[in-house]
């Protein structure tokens, strides 16, 4: 009996000494300042964790500029995230070329079938699937209806570039700051340059420049875009100190009703209130959406859009659970919840029907009717050229660089990348 007791005791000690099964951690890095999106994603992670014992999925967030600055180093380290947010385009392609991304095509084909083909294609590199989209967005002018009315400006009358400049002049004459821009971070100013390229050159302008046709980025389209941007800036439409204003600060200025317009992505709707001095911002009914104006003799259509196709990329060392979570995340019920809460415009087919907010609905309708959708130039053209695009956009607006010199700088960067 003593021997049997000893054997039983030894077995118990051995069992207690065996370490618990290691938990699989999946880290997802994101840049997002919209509260509804954060709340939804944390909920999705919690749902997944609850139904998958031994797995812990966690979203981690970085501010926009910190994300862009730190991500390259993180991806080269042993502390890289398993998945991370992406605007697709040339930056994503460079990351794949560096061997940092995993080919997940065989795993997500069923998920891709439920999504917009345009969005799905954005996350392929030479046919290889490296990520899954979740959102499409349109950059547009958000305007303060009360300030427009105060200046006698009618949004429905702003169709072309001259109409737009006329509205800017009317707002200034009424003592109203026409436009707020966070040029301290540079990329918000590039929206003007990018849209002007699309409106002037149409859907073939960027492809031709990439192929180095007609002088590449030094051709007339890019020079003309710089001239139009300089023409706007010469009216001094921006708030005082715009060259040092951050994106968050600019959202707050708009939310405080201190500027009539902001050319921005849909996340502004979730940022303008929390960044305003009051914390309340503008009421939704006081905000309107205005498409970027067409340009005289331009090849671009009024229905051509510019904005992001956003998704998640999977890093080369990510565990299989990361891809499994990505499929879980992409369920239609969560896409519908994103639409219903105003978190973002989902890419899952049919989920846009859940959108309730009239401003988000307007953007979704624009994207559904889009004749050509251009990704952000600073992402589409790759990291090196993208930085130059952002730099020259601010330099041209500030009168520090001529449109010709700006176009030449882009071409030089493209040749060196």
Describe this structure in words.
Helices cover 48% and strands 13% of the residues. It is built from 19 helices and 12 strands. Strand 1 (24-30), helix 2 (35-51) and strand 2 (55-61) form a beta-alpha-beta unit. Mean pLDDT is 92; it is low at 1-20.
List descriptors.
D-Maltodextrin-Binding Protein, domain 2; single chain; three-stranded antiparallel β-sheet; 417 residues; five-stranded mixed β-sheet
CATH class of the largest domain, named Alpha Beta
Alpha-carbon distance between the two ends:
79 Å
Beta-strand residue percentage? 5-15%
Measured as a percent range, the helix fraction is: 40-55%
Largest sheet, in brief, is: 5 strands, mixed
Q: Structural class from helices and strands?
A: alpha/beta
The tally of domains stands at 2
Short description:
Helices cover 48% and strands 13% of the residues. By secondary structure, the chain is α/β, with parallel strands linked by helices.
Task: Write the topology of this structure.
Layout: H1 2-17, E1 24-30, H2 35-51, E2 55-61, H3 64-75, E3 83-86, H4 89-97, H5 105-112, H6 117-121, E4 124-125, E5 128-129, E6 131-136, E7 140-144, H7 145-151, H8 161-173, H9 187-201, H10 205-210, H11 220-233, H12 247-255, E8 261-264, H13 268-271, E9 287-290, E10 304-306, E11 309-314, H14 320-329, H15 332-341, H16 358-368, E12 372-374, H17 377-380, H18 383-397, H19 403-416
Parallel strand pairs: 1-2, 1-3, 10-12
Antiparallel strand pairs: 3-11, 4-5, 6-11, 7-8, 7-9
Helix pairs in contact: 2-15, 7-8, 9-11, 9-18, 11-19, 18-19
């Amino acid at each position: 009996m003593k021997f049997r007791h000893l054997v039983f005791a030894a077995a118990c000690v051995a069992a207690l000494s065996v370490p618990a099964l290691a938990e699989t951690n999946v880290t997802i890095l994101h840049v997002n300042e919209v509260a509804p999106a954060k709340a939804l994603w944390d909920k999705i992670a919690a749902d997944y964790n609850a139904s998958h014992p031994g797995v812990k999925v966690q979203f981690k967030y970085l501010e926009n500029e910190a994300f862009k600055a730190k991500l390259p180093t993180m991806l080269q380290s042993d502390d890289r995230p398993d998945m991370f947010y992406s605007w697709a385009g040339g930056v994503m392609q460079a990351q794949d070329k560096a061997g940092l991304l995993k080919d997940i095509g065989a795993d997500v084909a069923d998920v891709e079938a439920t999504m917009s083909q345009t969005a799905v294609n954005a996350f392929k590199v030479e046919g290889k699937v490296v990520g899954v989209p979740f959102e499409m967005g349109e950059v547009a002018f958000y305007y303060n209806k009360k300030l427009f009315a105060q200046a006698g400006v009618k949004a429905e009358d702003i169709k072309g570039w001259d109409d737009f400049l006329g509205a800017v002049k009317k707002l200034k004459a009424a003592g109203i700051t026409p436009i707020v821009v966070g040029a301290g971070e540079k990329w918000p100013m590039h929206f003007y340059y990018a849209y002007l390229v699309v409106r002037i050159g149409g859907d073939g302008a960027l492809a031709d420049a990439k192929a180095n046709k007609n002088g590449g980025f030094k051709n007339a389209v890019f020079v003309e875009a710089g001239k139009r941007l300089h023409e706007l800036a010469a009216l001094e439409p921006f708030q005082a100190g715009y060259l040092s204003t951050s994106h968050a600060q600019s959202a707050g200025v708009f939310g405080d009703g201190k500027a009539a317009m902001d050319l921005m992505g849909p996340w502004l709707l979730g940022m303008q209130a929390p960044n305003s001095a009051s914390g309340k911002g503008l009421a939704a009914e006081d905000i309107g959406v205005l498409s970027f104006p067409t340009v005289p003799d331009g090849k671009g259509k009024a229905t051509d859009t510019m904005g992001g196709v956003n998704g998640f990329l999977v890093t080369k060392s990510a565990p299989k659970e990361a891809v499994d979570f990505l499929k879980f995340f992409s369920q239609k019920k969560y896409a519908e919840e994103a639409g219903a809460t105003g978190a973002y415009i989902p890419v899952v087919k049919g989920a846009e029907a859940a959108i309730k907010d009239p401003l988000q609905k307007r953007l979704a309708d624009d994207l559904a009717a889009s004749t050509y959708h251009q990704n952000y130039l600073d992402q589409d053209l790759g990291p090196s050229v993208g930085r130059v695009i952002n730099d020259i956009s601010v330099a041209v607006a500030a009168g520090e660089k001529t449109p010709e010199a700006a176009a030449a700088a882009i071409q030089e960067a493209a040749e060196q990348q």
